[in-house]
Amino acid sequence: MKANPTFMELYNVQVTGVAPNITASRAGPNLAGASDINDVDGKGEELDIIYNPTRNWRIMANVAHQEVTKSNILFYGKQLLARMMPVIQQLSGRANHTYPVGWQIGDPLPATSETFGAYFNRVVALPVAIATLNEGNPSADLRNY
To answer: What is the pTM of this model?
Structure first.
């Protein structure tokens, strides 16, 4: 493999077929270790009370209050999307998978064919919007008390 492999070479993406029936597939495992970052900030207080009424008896109580916020969610992913948006917009009206049999350039896609734009919105844009919706707000992953 060359010094700076392309994405297609790095992840073994294979493009086959002749227009308008071109398909792309990837051989091999999922993108191992593919993830993004976010910042987590936590603040809180904790109180522990321990009382030993007898030598063999212990009563314990614990109260905690915390607030965790996330910021910079999908930091690199949002940068990549911003750079790729012109290409995504150019491809948005095209068929997501193979074109229907007999389709010619200039023909409208049938209602049963999903466009790349609809696919992108469903699989990428909506999950990114949901993930970043609560950015800067207290995290719903942890209870306050």
So the answer is: 0.57
